[in-house]
Amino acid sequence: MENKRNYILAFWDPVLFINGMIFLNVNTVIPYFLIALSGSTFHISLANFLAVLGSFLPSIFIARYVQKLRIKNKVFAKILFIQRFSFLIFVFLFPFFLNYLGKTATIYLFLLFYGVFNLFVGTYGPFYFSILDKILPFEERGRVVGRGSALGNLIAIFMTLLLNFYINKISFPYNFFLIFLTGTFILILDALLFYFMEEKEEDIFEDSLSFSQFIRKAFSILKVNPFFRRVVISLLFLGLSLTALPYFIVYANKKFGSLNNIVTAFNFGYILSSVLGSFILGELTKNLGYKKVLSLGMALGLIGFIVVFTFRNLIGTILGSILVNLTFVSNILTSGFIITGVSTKEELPVYLAVSNTIVMAFSSLMHLLNGAIIKYLGFYVLFFVSFVFLVFSFVSIGRVVITSMDN
Description:
By secondary structure, this protein is mainly alpha-helical. The protein has a single domain, classed as Growth Hormone, Chain: A (Up-down Bundle). The protein has helices at about 5-20, 30-35, 40-55, 60-65, 75-100, 105-120, 125-135, 140-170, 175-195, 210-225, 225-240, 245-255, 260-290, 290-310, 315-340, 350-375, 380-395.
């Protein structure tokens, strides 16, 4: 190994990140939290919208900044510290908000802090994959991240038991105080990992373009690089399809009831499938390549939707959602590295930002549309639309050719 410390830290990053996000999961915990505050489907859709909006809005702005950094890891660590300590403000003030301002005000204050938290998520892509690009060989990245994700999800099974203890044994609102506090503390530990990575200085990318010129040049990549364009099209439809994932638990709650047990069942199913999926799919990336592994994940998701359509009961819904979750796992493991494989090294942050901006912009609008689809047409129409999107994504990714493995 070129640098054992970097391999170890890159391995432990998904371990801590996954376990921290168990307590801030937008697909399970956040909907349950909003329902506990008497929130509606609108509030759940808005939370998802904010999560998606924040994850792309800063990307294109931060990409140029990342390009000009000789060393990126310590700057990224500082950004993560600001994000996670700022969310602690809401965590500590949450009981006060609820007692003195009421449930409705607390919902919107949470959405405000949650929106700020997610604005920082938009910095992840340009920083994270640019850092891995410098510290890990191309063919090893999927395996390191996959193994770390597998261990992280294995540990998360026990974290789910802790989450269940908080929900069922500690009275509201103090259960959610502990849930959010635990998750944020783990995420702060995760930020420390990036600070201690060893990253070599590199030549910085200089240009004299104005910001408007930079934006035009960035998006012109879609015209001059057909393989990147096909990747973006595939990831766009994939992102639209995966917006249905948070609504499996909402559908199960409305149709089958017993919310506490359903949250635990879905979380356990997602975690167990993520353990096996991360490890197996991560190992397959070295032999099959990132593109074929993503295609495999998409195929599993298509089967998942068919299961939901065919077996309209709780077990069928949970099993189908687990298979769709494997599509999500394959996306996390491969999409950034597929972009790395069709980009130039010096413009990698821009490629990542362009893809992220397009995919997440449309996904955020889809989250808002999902609420209307459910209200007027029903859950099964939403699931069918997502199935069709996934078919288009599967076809498009098959036309991509990886042009570079030197990054």
